[in-house]
Amino acid sequence: MKLLKRKKSILLVFVVFVSFLLLFSQTAFAADGVKLSASTESGAVGEQVTVKINIANAKDTEGGQFDLSFDDDILEPVSAARGNFVPDVSGNIFDTNLELEDGKIRVIWVIAAGSQLDEGVVGTIVFKLLDDGETNLTFSGVVMAPEGVEFETPTSGKVTVLDAAALKQAAIDAANKAIADLPDPEDITLDDEAAVLAARALVKVAKDDHGAVDSDFTNLAKLVSAEAMIAKLKAIKAACDAILALPAVDKLTLDDKPDVVAARALVNKAKNDHGAVDADFADCLPKLVAAENRIRELEGLVPTPPTGGLNYLLFPGLFVMVVAMLLYTKRKRFAVR
Fold first, then answer.
1. CB-based contacts of 97-101 (< 8 A; 24+ apart in sequence)
2. Can you tell me the distance from the alpha carbon of 146 to that of 162, in angstroms, rounded to the nearest whole number?
3. CA-to-CA distance for 66 and 146, rounded, in angstroms?
4. Were 166 and a residue from 18, 94, 142, 162 both cysteine, which residue would form a disulfide, CB within 3.0 to 4.6 Å?
5. Are 157 and 186 members of one domain?
6. pLDDT tens-digit readout, 187-211
7. How far apart are CA 127 and CA 44, in angstroms?
8. Which of 178, 195, 219 is the last residue of a domain?
9. Angle, helix 220-244 to helix 164-180, in steps of 10 degrees
10. For the stretch 208-226, what's the b/e string if a residue is b when 16 or more beta carbons lie within 10 angstroms of its beta carbon?
11. For residue 171, with 0-12 CB atoms within 10 Å meaning exposed, 13-18 middle and 19 or more buried, which class applies?
12. Measuring CA to CA, which residue among 241, 244, 256 is closest to residue 292?
C-alpha cells in the first residue's frame, strides 16, 4: 500500500514538472509582437524624401492599419506605394488616405492568404519638404489582423529639413571627416580600400547633389594620394599573384611561356603606371626572373644565372684554361732550349 502511494506521488511530481516545462517553453519561445517602424530621412527645402514603413515579426499576419502623424508646416504628403511585404496579387490590398486630416495620414493593407514574410516594407510615403525644421513621424490607431495578434509600440521615424546651404555644408563636413580619418598615404594598405572608396563617394555626393567644388574639401590631396596608393598596391598584388601562380621553375614547360610573359607585363604595368620599383616585388620577382631564364633554356637560348648559366660557362672556361696551360708549357720549353 505504501509502495503504491509512493508511486502515485512520484507520478504526480513528474506530471507537474512536465506541465511546468511545457508552460515555460511556450513562454520562452513565444514570438515577439509585430513591430512597425518608420525610417529617418533628411533633405533640403523643396526636395522630396521617401519614408519607409517597416514591419517585423509579422509572418502569417493578414493585414493592418495605422495613422501616421507629422508636422504639416514641415511636410506635405505627395504619394504612397506598396512595399515588398504586400505583394501585388489578387486579394491583397494596399491603400492610403493622404488627406485624413492636417498632419495625419492613414495606411491600410490586406494580405488575403497571410504573409509569407516575417519582415519587410509595408509601404513608402513620399513627402515634400516645405520648411526648415525637424518632425517626428508618430504612429497611432494601430490595428492588426487576424484579431488577437500582439504588437509592440511602434518606433517613430523622423524627417529633418535643412536649407540648401546647411545641407551642402553637412555633406562637405561628412566628406572631410571621412578623408581625415584615412591613414596617411604612405601607411595605406589594401585593407583601407573600402574606407577610401567611401570617402570618395561622400565627396561625389557633396559635388553632385549639393554643388560643392574641390576647394570646399580641406584635404582632397590626401584622398587623391590614398587612391593612387590603393591603385599601386592592387597593381603590385596582381603582378605577384600572377607570378606566384606560375609552376615551380623545375616544372615549367614552353606551354607556360604565355603566363610568364603576362606576369612580366603586369610587373611592367605596375612600374610604368604606378611608380612601383623592384623592391615592391621582393616576395615574388626572383621567381619570375628564374622562370624567364628557364624559358630561355627550354628555347635553346644562352641562359643567365641562376637557372643554368654557370653550367654553360663551365666547359668553355675549362677549354680556355687547358689551352692556356699548353701554351705556357710550350713557351717554357722553348725558353729552356
1. 100/67
2. 42
3. 15
4. 162
5. no
6. 999 999 999 999 999 999 999 989 9
7. 12
8. 219
9. 50
10. eebebeeebbeebebbebb
11. buried
12. 256
Whether 71 and 108 have beta carbons less than 8 Å apart is answered as no
Are 64 and 176 in a shared domain? no
User: How many structural domains does the chain have?
Assistant: 2
**Alpha-carbon gap, residue 285 to 264, rounded angstroms:** 9
Residue pair 50/129 in contact by the 8 Å Cβ criterion: no
173 CB-contact burial (10 Å; exposed 0-12 / middle 13-18 / buried 19+) = middle
Sequence-separated contacts (24+) of 243-251 with Cβ below 8 Å: 243/267, 243/281, 243/284, 243/285, 243/287, 243/288, 243/291, 244/284, 244/287, 246/287, 246/288, 246/291, 249/287, 249/290, 249/291, 249/294, 249/307, 250/294
What are 178's three cell numbers? 571621412
Q: What is the CATH number of the domain that holds 150?
A: 2.60.40.680
| C-beta of residue 63 within 8 angstroms of C-beta of residue 113 | no
- Summarised one tens digit per residue, pLDDT across range 84-142 is 999 999 999 999 999 999 999 999 999 999 999 999 999 999 999 999 999 999 999 99
Amino acid letter for position 179: I
Task: Say whether both 65 and 143 belong to one domain.
Answer: yes
Helix axes 220-244, 285-298, angle to 10 degrees: 40
Domain that holds residue 180: 170-219
> Are 80 and 145 part of one and the same domain?
yes
Same domain membership, residue 99 and residue 212: no
Place of cell 566628406: 175
pLDDT category of residue 32 using cuts at 50, 70 and 90? confident
